[in-house]
Amino acid sequence: MRVSVSVGSAYYDGDNWDDLVEYVKAADRLGADTVWSAEAWGMEAVSSLGYLAAVTENIRLGSGIMQISARTPATTAMTALALDKLSHGRFSLGLGVSGPQVVEGLHGDSFAKPLARLREYVEIVRMAMNGERIVYHGDHYELPRPGGEGKALKLAIAPNPHLPIYLATLGPKSLELTGELADGWVGTSLIPEHADVLLDPIRVGAERAGRTLADLDIQVNAQLAVSDDVDALLDRARPGMAFTLGGMGSATTNFYNAAYSRAGYGDIAAEVQRLWTTGDKPAAIAAVPDELLLQAYAIGTEDMVRDRIRALAAAGIDSVRIGPQGRTSAEQIRHLEMAIDIITSASVPD
């Protein structure tokens, strides 16, 4: 199983950027697969990757993810091709629809029919990256714009039909779209014992396109942390899960909450969300049970973490993503070294 790293967060402001650069350079030296940059309402996903391209040699650079509401499809295609050129072929384009709070609140765009919009967006991006003249007639995108002076153009930058596109999706229909159109999945909220909830729709979409699930690169987050003091790790992880279930979206649209609900944690997810959205965040945090954390995250003793990594591998996961842990780059790099050792050893058959 491969190891990737994630940098930034929904609200990352770049405060510890120099430490993060050292962390990514170490990930490059240690053989990590990809560094994925986050984007929501903090530091955007693109500029950091351009910088990291110049200070790394082998690690792939992935947008994890670029929001489709923030850029036109043509701009995204130009950005992807430019980053791929700057990195000498190391860029992977990760796309996602985000959620209504960000799309409508930050970008002023409608969140209606996100699945249809994502399909059209990916099709236009592919067309542009293939070097085709961009002519598209969809429900959401019409190129060239009718009734004006625009004409069908193709990008001046050299095409790359093989530049991989990953989608960050969670709903059943959007997961099917991932299987149908994408090269990989930037996944989250996956419990290995219930992986079919998220992977089966991807498989259905892949088969509809004449492919198999094995044709896609399946990457998920691991939230890896090791300590003999398991209770302390659980207490540290509980607020993040409460925020995921209660605050990652509105009271009516939370894709993460829905994914955990489909995995059998519906009552817990609903209660945590109710408490969070009514303003009782301490109660919401307390309502997250140990069982859910231990199932969803690779945390605990070394043996416990190895078991979770083996469970992910058995579920068909190709690569796990971990984030920096520690206050300094030295602490973060030590955690990364440990994580790679554990994941590598867990991936070796007994």
List its salient traits:
13 strands, alpha/beta, 13 helices, 350 residues, two-stranded antiparallel ribbon, single chain, eight-stranded parallel barrel, TIM Barrel
What's the total count of β strands?
Answer: 13
The CATH superfamily of the largest domain is known as Luciferase-like domain
Q: State the low-pLDDT regions, or none.
A: none
> Helical element count?
13
Overall outline: globular
Largest sheet: 8 strands, parallel, barrel
Termini separation comes to 15 Å
Assigned CATH architecture of the largest domain = Alpha-Beta Barrel
Radius of gyration: 20 Å
Give the overall pLDDT as a whole number: 95
Taken as a percent bin, the fraction of beta residues is 5-15%
- CATH T-level fold name of the largest domain: TIM Barrel
What spatial order of strands do you see in the largest sheet? Answer: 1-2-3-5-8-9-10-13
H/E series, N to C?
A: EHEHEEHEHHEEEHEHEEHHHHEHEH
Portion of residues in helices?
A: 40-55%
CATH class of the largest domain: Alpha Beta
Number of domains: 2
Which class best fits the helix and strand makeup?
alpha/beta
Structural commentary:
The chain is α/β, with parallel strands linked by helices. The protein folds into 2 domains: 2-223 and 301-347, TIM Barrel (Alpha-Beta Barrel); 225-297, no CATH class. It has helices spanning 17-29, 45-55, 73-86, 100-105, 114-129, 172-181, 196-208, 230-247, 255-277, 281-286, 290-296, 302-315, 329-347, and strands at 2-7, 34-37, 60-63, 66-67, 91-96, 136-137, 142-143, 165-167, 184-187, 217-221, 225-226, 299-300, 319-322. Strand 6 (136-137) and strand 7 form a beta hairpin. The model has no long low-confidence stretch (mean pLDDT 95).
